[in-house]
Amino acid sequence: MMKSFPWSLLYCASLLLSDVLGTYHLNAGDPHLIAAQSYAQTRNNGRPPLRTLNPAKTDSQCRSRPLDLVFIIDSSRSVRPGEFEKVKIFLADMVDTLVVGSEATRVAVVNYASTVKIEFLLKDHFNKPDMKKAISRIEPLAAGTMTGLAIKTAVNEAFTEQSGARPRSRNISKVAIIVTDGRPQDQVEEVSATARASGIEIYAVGVDRADMRSLQLMASIPLEDHVFYVETYGVIEKLTSKFRETLCGLDPCAIGHDCEHICVNSNASYYCKCRNGYILNADKKTCSLKQVKVEVVEDPCKCEARLAFQKQTQAAIQQLTAKLADVSGRIERLENMVGRA
Predict the structure, then answer these.
(1) I want to staple 97 with a disulfide (CB 3.0 to 4.6 A). Which of 70, 89, 221, 244 is the partner?
(2) Distance between CA atoms of 45 and 204, rounded to whole angstroms?
(3) What 3-state class would DSSP assign to 117?
(4) pTM for this model (two decimals)
(5) Quick check: helix, strand or coil at residue 316?
(6) Per-residue pLDDT tens listing for the chain (341 residues)
């Protein structure tokens, strides 16, 4: 019995490895990948979210990495007007924590209830004042809670290149943050799996009466990093610093580097540069003094007249050479004619 145990363990491990490899070799949008992500999400639904609401700790070296960020906010009937104002304050505070710009983080907002309204797109605002003004003008839609429809709309209309999302080749992270206080009135599992399979990372924020299972079905895994819960809208602002910690990227140059002169941050990595007068060595880390080549010019003060004379002389020589070749050709032809006679 003891001998068979390691073989059983090895067999299970091989099955798990083949399952993982099979999943990651599928293309985004493949129905098998969507099903696999949905299955993986279901397996993790039993794990309670472990995120706490202690926003005191945020890394001082933390800086916002470029994102295509879409907020999907619930403004159904259950969200009272005063509570919806708290959501808008949360969005404005989030904008303040980000480095916003066309080459930095782009932000869009999708508002939903029974219907879905895109308040502004990723391409609409590239500075914080305009973005916060647009947020302040958002009005609740009331009525139902069509969360699945909102996610689908975000994927099909807000995360497209036509709407301002950067192309996949740019490797800019695509992030959706869903804020809701109720239970979806439509299906969210499949549409969320499709969104995740397309490369969108989903964070789900539940407030008060929010259905925890629905949050888990929507969010990316691991769930403890992507599911948040607050008891009331009154404390939702406390999530701002927590999201700053979650969404930021650490500056590798601040953490430590082995560049002799200058460290240049390049998103998740870095490269080295040298100060003026130095060149980077083959190891791409150290620098050497730049060697200045001294060229000796025999006559650096050639005047225009001399240059003109040289050009005229060269032209005359070329003409004489051409005439000589012509005369030589004629003599050769005459000799041939005399020889035949």
Answers:
(1) 244
(2) 13
(3) strand
(4) 0.61
(5) helix
(6) 444 444 454 444 444 444 433 333 334 455 545 554 554 454 444 333 334 333 333 334 455 578 999 999 999 998 999 999 999 999 999 999 888 999 999 999 999 999 999 999 999 999 999 999 999 999 999 789 999 999 999 999 999 999 999 999 888 999 999 999 989 999 999 999 999 999 999 999 999 889 999 999 999 988 988 999 998 998 888 888 788 877 776 556 665 678 888 888 665 567 888 988 888 999 988 999 887 665 555 555 556 667 777 778 888 888 888 778 777 777 877 777 776 66
